[in-house]
Structure formats: structure tokens, C-alpha cells
Amino acid sequence: MRYVKAPRERIAVLIGKNGETKEAIEKHGVKLTIDSSTGEVKMEGDDSLKELEAENVVRAIARGFSPEKALLLFNDDYYFELLDIRDWAGKKVSHVKRLAGRVIGKDGKARRVIEEITGAHIAIYGHTVAIIGKMDEIDFAKRAIEMLLEGANHATVYRYLEKERRRRKMEELGLWEKGI
User: Contact 32/40 with Cβ under 8 angstroms?
Assistant: First the structure.
């Protein structure tokens, strides 16, 4: 049995229209009990791995992802990573908002560029940045987000992303030799 506390304003998304999202999660062998007044979500199943996967899906929805993207976590090659902006900003709300704004970028450009180049999905909610993707996509996106949180210029981060994408593509094609 596992528990997750979800923000009350995300409970409706977790349940879904006519309970569709809750049912989609429960199809994977886990029963969800959702207390909409406290935001507490209990996951029970016969398989602890399925409970863990369901916990990650619930956490992803709670941190701002759409159910469609969160349900990707039931696939073996998708993972969930959560970064706490307070680790870079301290407890000051104004600093957290400023740094969240840096990750989002003007009109959502920074987030969009990171998603397009890395292939990972990103959600910024409250004091967290959540990432869903394959392991290499998460590592790639996480590094770009950390650079922004550490104060790097957006142009510097975009150059890093482009350079790293080219390097990975060359490596994929077998044209990149390590150490050269």
C-alpha cells in the first residue's frame, strides 16, 4: 500500500471525466482510494511494482502533467523525475517564482525548446519541475533545467542543447568517437 498527497485542485484531473483517468490507472492492477477533501490518494495492489508505477502516475498528475502523459509511466522505458526549485532558490517564494519563470521562459519558449530537443515532457507546478521521459531524455532535460536554475543565460542553454543533440545524433550513427 502506498500513499500520495495531491493538491486538491488536481484531484478532478486525477479522477478524470466520469472517472476515466482513475479507471485507466486501475486497469494496471492497482485500486485507488481518493479523498478529495484532503488530497490523499491510497494505492493498493497485489504487486508492489504496479503500486510504485501507479504512485509515479499519480505524482505526475499531481505535479501538473496531463493524464495522457502521466500514463506513459506504465511503460517500462519511461521514468519520472521531480526537481524542487527550492533547492536552488531557498524558501523565498519570490525567488521560487522567478526561477520557475526562467524554466518556463517567455511565452513558454524555454520549456518548449527543452521538450522539443530532448524528447522529454516537462511540467512546472508550484515549487517543482517534473520530467517524464526515457532515461537519456530525462538526463538531457534535467541538465538544461539545472543550468537555467543555476542562472545560465537562455542562449547558453539552447547552445548546449543543440550541441548535445548533434553529439548524440553522431553517436547514434556511430560517427562520434569518445576521447577525440
Answer: no
pLDDT tens digits along 47-84 = 999 999 999 999 999 999 999 999 999 999 999 999 99
Q: Which helix (H) or strand (E) holds 169?
A: helix 154-172
Of 74, 65, 39, residue with least CA distance to 130: 65
Q: Give pLDDT < 70 ranges for the chain.
A: 176-180
Please answer whether residues 141 and 122 qualify as being in contact, where contact means their C-beta atoms are separated by less than 8 angstroms. yes
C-alpha cell recorded at residue 89: 532558490
Query: CB–CB of 124/103 below 8 Å?
Result: yes
DSSP 30-46: EEEEEETTTTEEEEEES
The total of other beta-carbon atoms located within 10 Å of residue 51's CB is 19
Cα radius of gyration (the chain): 18
Q: Distance between CA atoms of 117 and 133, rounded to whole angstroms?
A: 12
Domains and CATH numbers, the chain: 2-74 (3.30.1370.10), 79-172 (3.30.1370.10)
